[in-house]
Amino acid sequence: MYKNSRQRKQAERDKKLADEILTGKVKVYYEPPKKKSQANRIGGATGEEGAKEVLAEQYMRLLGLLIPGILAMFSTVEDLRALHKTKHKLPALILYGIIMFMSQTSSRREANREIGGSEVAELIQRLVPEFTSMPHADTLARLLEVIDPGTMEKQYEELVREFVKSDFFKAVNPGQIIVLADGTMKFVRDYCWDERALSRNAGNPEKETYYAYMMESVLILNNGMVLPLLTETMENGERLDGDKAKQDCETKAFKRLAARLVKLLGKGRVTMVLDGLYATGPMMSTCTNYGWEFMITLKRGCLNTVWEDYEGLQKIEKENTLEARWGERYQLYHWSNDIEYIYGNNNKKLILNVVTCRESCYGINPKKSGKPSEKHTDFAWLSSSRVNAENVFRLCTEIARRRWYIENHFLTLKHQGYSYSHCFSLNWNAMKGFHCLAKFANFINAFITCSQNMGDYIIAEGIKGVVKKAWTYIKEHGLPDGACSIAPVCIDDNGRRPKIRFRQIKLKHTA
Fold it and tell me: 152: which residues sit within 8 A by CB, 6+ positions away?
């Protein structure tokens, strides 16, 4: 009965859409991507013990394609500890740290409890033959205190560079490279634990708080996979004559981040998607100078001269409109091109394109006795590309509105297993080191959970559920019998390291 009713309502919606297209009310119809919902069944896909072993086996097989090459990158990192006093080698500790975050351990103490006495030692020993016993999490923290965090960040840059420059990346992501960037708070304290920490008081000096703040960037692939890119830590400089140095901020951090991204991704082929904070002349000029395209949120009250020109042009450029339907949502686009914007003391000039979208959708409002209601949402963006009827939907809906992917990325890092907001160490260098290890873990898990081999498990268990069940099995039973792809990390006499076998991982094709 329910199925027949649902089919009847869908047929009515399809007939209404056809009538609207025929009458000209809706010029274009875009089919939204269909995302499969997580299964709602008892036990998920691994209700039996044998199914859990198969899940762990698939996870370990994919891990074996990535982790040896990644671990070999650290063979060039100098160990600054007193080697005659060390029990655990640097590669083993680095691998232990990556596993901490891959298995979604929330603290050093939990790592000692959950990993220290588990069967994970078999995995580490398989990769690092000289490994003898599980280290204490404090040993890893002491190592990260003496290693330059910039060195670890360079190792991660090398990982991303190897992926982006590969033929595999060009095959799965042809066309533009979409990069998102935004700042987020890592953790906050009511005391100054390090002079490099930022501070704020909201107008009340007695309530000064201190916090660590990061500028993050992520790479969005055509299939919807989100990979962490580079991180720029916002930190105060040295105090001068006893006075506090000028505080770091997002705009300064973005310029430093952009200078690193252009070395990694090159000029051209990159589209930056940013929020309204970056709708300023210097930020847009930075993107333009690097040959990057951009889509930046434009808020009311920001760039008033641009808004005035746009609203004036709308009165005469009535043809620059498009009515479209995206699934159940109605969209009305307006745009104006070649708007001149002057900024700075030197009267620098930028040519901008502005596009707005009013989106309407119908739904049941529980606050109005369950009666259907119409909801309107307004969007506005600054575009580096000229806008027309052929590209307006792609620029706005398929690119600009992907800005929410980075917000979802922050949600995953903070609340879905990676303990982004937890202070793994109050030492500034160790904090950045733990942060970098978490990025390696997030990169690996993103690749594994986005592969076609894990597709059925992801639908049944969810990403967090798959990762949790795989590592729970390994902690309790060790490596599954079929995990034969885990091989020792070997560096030959010429310094050649094993390659990361991206090509052997079949990624899903759709978002």
Answer: 77, 432, 433, 436, 437
Closest CA to 218 of 261, 186, 168, 173: 261
Has domain 175-415 been given CATH number 2.30.180.10?
Answer: no
- The C-alpha atoms of residue 363 and residue 371 are separated, in whole angstroms, by 8
**452 pLDDT band (50/70/90 cuts)?**
confident
| Rg over CA atoms, the chain | 26
Per-position b or e across 143-172, b if 16+ CB within 10 A of its CB: bbbebebeebbbbbbebbebbbeeebbeeb
pLDDT of 292 strictly over 90: yes
Give the length of the chain: 511
What's the rounded Cα separation, in Å, for the pair 321 and 17?
A: 20
Distance set, CA 434 to CA 109, 247, 259, 351, 483 (Å): 14, 24, 24, 42, 28
Closest CA to 63 of 464, 468, 501, 458: 501
Average pLDDT, the chain: 84
Using CA atoms, how far apart are residues 462 and 33, in angstroms rounded to an integer?
18
Beta bridge mates, 376: 360
Rounded to 5°, angle at Cα 505 from 502 and 510: 110
Residue pLDDT, tens place only, 3-48:
566 667 666 666 665 566 555 555 676 777 766 666 666 666 665 6
Q: Which tokens hold the place of 198?
A: 């930022």
Q: Which residue type does 234 have? A: M
Rounded Cα distance between 280 and 270, Å, is 19
The phi-psi region of residue 214 (left if phi > 0; otherwise alpha if psi is between -120 and 50; otherwise beta) is beta
What phi and psi values does residue 277 have, to the nearest 5 degrees?
Answer: -60, -30
Q: How many Cβ atoms sit within 10 Å of the Cβ of residue 12?
A: 10
Write down the pLDDT at residue 240. Answer: 47
From the list 189, 288, 283, 195, the residue with the least C-alpha distance to 240 is 195
pLDDT per residue as tens digits for the range 151-196: 999 999 999 999 998 888 888 888 889 999 999 999 899 889 988 9
d(CA 425, CA 439) in angstroms, rounded, equals: 16
Eight-class DSSP state of 397: I
DSSP 201: -
pLDDT digits (tens, 9 = 90+) for 75-124: 778 877 777 778 888 888 999 999 999 998 989 999 898 888 778 888 88
The runs of H, that is alpha helices, within 173-303 are 250-265, 281-289
